[in-house]
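User: I'm new to structure prediction. If I give you an amino acid sequence, what do you actually give back? Let's try with this one:
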Amino acid sequence: MRDAEQTVGNLIDKQSVSFISSVDADGFPNTKAMLPPRKREGIKVFYFTTNTSSMRVSQFMANPNACIYFCDKRFFRGVMLVGAVEVLHDSKSKEMIWRDGDTMYYSKGVTDSDYCVLKFTAHKGRIYGNFKSEDFLV
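Assistant: Good question. You get back a string of structure tokens that encode the predicted 3D arrangement of the chain. For your 138 residues, that looks like this:
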């Protein structure tokens, strides 16, 4: 795909919802809607906030294989990125993506033990638009 980073990046930046998939203990995919990533480095690395106590964190700790998906429903376009998730608990990562108002989710602030960061690193992707799909490497 020509200029995948710009095309995919623009699509991602305009979405208010993202979808993340983990793998459960029986090997089945589990998908959930999340807020968009707090930070991204090109289309390779994405950072999300979540609760340490969540089922998703347990699944990523057992199996880091993951997928994230972004959908532009207005133009019926979407992009899937496949890769792996690291669960980060270090203060530098937590502070990097912390925002005012996050105490609504993590009452003890940036040091809340139930607050962690999901770092997703993409390996490959697939984009859909204009009635066709195309695979690309990240």
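You can read the tokens as a compact description of the fold. Here is one thing that stands out. The first strand starts at residue 18 and ends at 23.
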